[in-house]
Design goal:
The structure holds two protein chains of two kinds. Chain A is mostly beta strands. Helix content of chain A is about 0%, strand content about 40%. Chain A has two helices and 32 strands. Chain A has a four-stranded antiparallel sheet, with no helix packed on it. Chain B has a domain of about 55 residues. Chain B has eight helices and no strands. By secondary structure, chain B is an all-alpha fold. The longest helix of chain B has about 30 residues. The chains are: A mainly beta, B mainly alpha. At the A-B interface, β7 and α2 of A face α1 and α2 of B. Chain B: Belongs to the IER family. Chain B: InterPro entries: IER. Chain B: This is Immediate early response gene 2 protein-like.
Chain lengths: ~450, ~170
C-alpha cells in the first residue's frame, strides 16, 4: 500500500513555491548549527530560530511594495545573538547544554520586540530594539570618543541626534534561573501578557515576566518514590484566550487541561484527553510511539492538536474520550519501529503547527519531507525541503512514499528514506501562507504560489 | 518472538548505558521510555523461557539434584543481568539498592526451582557492537568531552553485569 492520499490538484489547493533557504550549503553539518526551534512573531514580520550552539537568529520580512501581489517579501537577517552559553552544575557534576529548546515571542507593546528563549534550565527574556540615531556634537569628546583637551574648548554646544545606519541590539532583560530540576521542554506566554509558564519533565512553573527570583509551581507529577515514575510531561501550552487555562501532554499519550482558578496546585486536571489504544497495534514500542511530542492550541482556542510519533490528532476541547480527527503522518514506518528504535529515530520529537485560520496543519517527517494536512478539504500532501528545488518561485512537487509492492515512478521506497534528514521544527506565518521549515541546519521558507 | 525480545533487551541496556554519559545530564523521558521497553521485552523473554523450560522438563528425565544446582544459580542471576543498573542512576543510595537486590534474589531462588537450560546467557546478552547510526560517532565524541566518565575508574563498571534490579525505573539526577 503506497502512501499519499488524494494529493494536490483542484482549484482551492494552495501550491507552495520555494522562496528562500538560510544556512550553510555544505553537507558537513556543525553540531552547533543544528536548528532546534523556529517561531514567527505575532505579526509574522519576524522569524526567530534557535540552534544547538545557543544562538538566536532573527529574520525580518521586507516591507517593500506590499501592494503588488507578485512581489515576494523576503526574510533577511535582522539580529543574531548568543542567548545561552554552556554551563556546568558543580553540585551535580553535570554539563548544561546551551541548546535553545524553545523561543516564544511576546506580543508587541512598543517599538521594541521581546522574546523568551530557553535551554534545559534557564529562561531568558530578550529585548530586541532598533537604533537609527545617535547623538553627535559632544563638548568634551571627539566623534571617535577621544577626549578633547579642555584648554581647546572655547564654546559650548548642545549635542543633536543625527541619523545613523540601523543597528539592532539584543539585550537580556530578565534571567529566570533555578526554577527547574529537570529539563525544560516548553514555555508558553499567557494571554494576560504578564505571566508565562515553563514546563520540565515533572513540573510546570508559572512566572511573572517582571519577577525573576521566584516562580509558582502549578503542576508537580513527581512521585514520592521515583521508582514509581510512569510518565513525564512532554509539552505544555496556555490557552490563547483564557488566561486561566493551560494544557500539558504526557509520555503516555494523554493531555490534561488545567484551570488555575480551580486550585493553586493543578495536579488534578479539569479534563483528561485520552484515546484508548488500538490493541491490534500493540508492540514493544507502543509506549514510545504514543508519547506526545507537541501540543498546540488552534488560534480560535476551540481545538488542540497533538503530535505523537506516527500521527497528528485534533481534539475538540469539549470532547475528552477521543480526538475529532486523526491524520497518519508516515504510517509506513509502523513496520520499521524496531530499526527506528535501534537508530534512535523513534525518540525524535516532531512539532506541529496550525495555519492562520486553523484549516490546515503541518508537521515534519524524514527525508526532509513535511506534511500538510488540510482539515477542511480532507486532503493531505507530502512536500520536500531540498536543495534540488531551490530555484526562485519553483513549485514544490508532491512526494509519495511507497511502503511496499511495486514502486511507481516518482515514488520513493521506505528503505530509501534518509532518516538523518528529519524535519522536527516548522512554523506557519500567523496571517499569510508563508511557512518556515527547518531541516538539520537549514531554514527553508516557502510561500504560496501567486498567479 | 523471544529472540526479538532478547535483542530489544540488549539494545535497551546499551542505550541506557550511553545515556549516562551523554552531554546535558540524564534525560528522564528517554530513560523512562527505554526502561519501559526493556521491561516489556524482558517479560516476553521470561515468559518464553518459562514455557521452554516447562517443555524441557517434560522431555528430559530427572537428573541428580547436585548437578542442576549450579546452572540454576547462574541462570537465576542471568535475568537480573539484563535489566538496567539503577544504582548508577541514584549515586546517593547505592548500598540500599544492592541490599534490596540480594533480597530479591533470595526471594526468587526460593520460589523458582525451575531448571534453565542455558548457562552462558551473560555474554549472550552483551551486544558485540552497538547497532547505531553514523551520527552516534558524534555522540561518542561528545562523551569523551564529559568530565565524569566511568572508564575504568568507577567500581560500578564491574558490578553492572551482575547486579541489575529488575523492577526499577531509571531515576533522574
Amino acid at each position: 500500500m503506497c502512501g499519499g492520499l488524494r494529493a494536490g490538484g483542484g482549484g482551492n489547493d494552495v501550491q507552495w513555491c520555494f522562496s528562500q533557504v538560510k544556512g550553510a550549503i555544505d553537507d558537513d553539518v556543525a553540531e552547533a548549527d543544528i536548528i532546534s526551534t523556529v517561531e514567527f512573531n505575532h505579526s509574522g514580520e519576524l522569524l526567530a530560530t534557535g540552534d544547538k550552539g545557543g544562538r538566536v537568529v532573527i529574520f525580518q520580512q521586507e516591507t517593500e511594495n506590499k501592494s503588488q501581489p507578485q512581489c515576494r517579501s523576503e526574510y533577511n537577517v535582522y539580529s543574531t545573538f548568543q542567548s545561552h552559553e554552556p554551563e556546568f552544575d558543580y553540585l551535580k557534576s553535570l554539563e548544561i547544554e546551551e541548546k535553545i529548546n524553545k523561543i516564544r515571542w511576546l506580543p508587541q507593546k512598543n517599538a521594541a520586540q521581546f522574546l523568551l528563549s530557553t535551554n534545559d534550565k534557564t529562561i531568558k527574556l530578550w529585548k530586541i530594539s532598533e537604533r537609527d540615531k545617535r547623538p553627535e556634537g559632544y563638548n568634551l569628546k571627539e566623534e571617535d570618543g577621544r577626549y578633547r583637551d579642555a584648554a581647546t574648548i572655547t564654546t559650548l554646544r548642545v549635542p543633536v541626534f543625527r541619523p545613523m545606519d540601523l543597528m539592532v541590539e539584543a539585550s537580556p532583560r530578565r534571567v529566570f534561573a533555578n526554577g527547574h530540576t529537570y529539563h525544560i521542554n516548553s514555555i508558553s506566554v499567557n494571554s494576560d501578557n504578564e505571566t508565562y509558564l515553563s514546563a520540565d519533565d515533572l513540573r510546570i512553573n508559572l512566572w511573572h515576566l517582571e519577577i525573576t527570583d521566584r516562580s509558582f509551581n502549578v503542576v508537580d507529577i513527581k512521585p514520592a518514590n521515583m521508582e514509581e515514575l510512569t510518565e513525564v510531561i512532554t509539552a505544555a501550552e496556555f490557552h490563547p484566550h483564557q488566561c486561566n487555562t493551560f494544557v500539558y501532554s504526557s509520555s503516555k499519550g494523554t493531555i490534561r487541561l488545567c484551570d488555575m482558578r480551580a486550585s493553586a496546585l493543578c495536579d488534578k486536571h479539569s479534563k483528561l484527553f485520552e484515546e484508548p489504544e488500538d490493541p491490534s497495534n500493540r508492540s514493544f514500542f507502543s509506549e514510545i510511539i504514543s508519547s506526545i511530542s507537541d501540543v498546540k492550541f488552534s488560534h480560535n482556542g476551540r481545538y488542540m492538536m497533538t503530535r505523537d510519533y506516527l500521527s497528528v490528532k485534533i481534539w475538540d476541547l469539549n470532547m475528552e474520550n477521543r480526538p475529532v480527527e486523526t491524520y497518519q503522518v508516515h504510517e509506513y514506518l509502523r513496520s520499521k519501529l524496531c530499526s527506528l528504535y535501534e537508530n534512535d529515530c523513534i525518540f525524535d520529537k516532531f512539532e506541529c503547527c496550525w495555519n492562520g485560520n486553523d484549516s490546515v496543519v503541518m508537521t515534519g517527517s524524514y527525508n526532509n519531507f513535511f506534511r500538510m494536512l488540510d482539515r477542511s478539504q480532507r486532503r493531505d500532501v507530502t512536500l520536500e525541503a531540498s536543495r534540488e528545488s531551490c530555484k526562485p518561485r519553483q513549485v514544490l512537487k508532491p512526494r509519495r512514499v511507497c511502503a511496499g509492492g511495486k514502486r511507481k515512478k516518482d515514488e520513493i521506497s521506505v528503505d530509501s528514506l534518509d532518516f538523518n534528514k528529519k524535519i522536527l521544527h516548522t512554523a506557519w506565518h500567523p496571517q499569510e501562507n508563508i511557512i518556515a521549515v527547518a531541516t538539520t541546519n537549514n531554514l527553508y521558507i516557502f510561500q504560496e504560489k501567486v498567479n | 518472538m523471544d529472540v526479538e525480545a532478547k535483542r530489544i533487551m540488549a539494545l535497551s541496556i546499551s542505550k541506557l548505558y550511553s545515556l549516562r554519559t551523554q552531554r546535558g545530564g540524564l534525560k528522564l523521558h528517554r530513560s523512562l521510555l527505554l526502561s519501559m521497553t526493556m521491561r516489556a521485552a524482558r517479560d516476553i523473554y521470561h515468559t518464553a523461557q518459562l514455557l521452554r523450560d516447562a517443555e524441557e522438563e517434560q522431555v528430559v528425565p530427572c537428573a541428580p539434584d547436585a548437578a542442576p544446582e549450579e546452572p540454576m544459580e547462574i541462570s537465576k542471576d542471568s535475568p537480573q543481568t539484563l535489566t538496567p543498573k539503577e544504582v548508577a542512576m541514584k549515586p546517593q543510595e547505592p548500598k540500599e539498592t544492592l541490599e534490596e537486590d540480594k533480597e530479591n534474589r533470595c526471594a526468587s531462588e526460593r520460589h523458582s526451582r525451575k531448571r534453565r537450560g542455558k548457562t552462558a546467557l551473560e555474554t549472550d546478552f552483551l551486544p558485540l557492537k552497538k547497532a547505531k547510526m553514523e551520527t552516534d560517532e558524534e555522540k561518542q565524541h561528545l562523551q569523551g568531552e564529559v568530565l565524569r566518565t566511568n572508564n575504568g575508574n568507577s567500581c560500578r563498571q564491574a558490578e553492572t553485569l551482575t547486579a541489575f534490579p529488575t523492577n526499577r525505573t531509571i531515576v533522574a539526577c
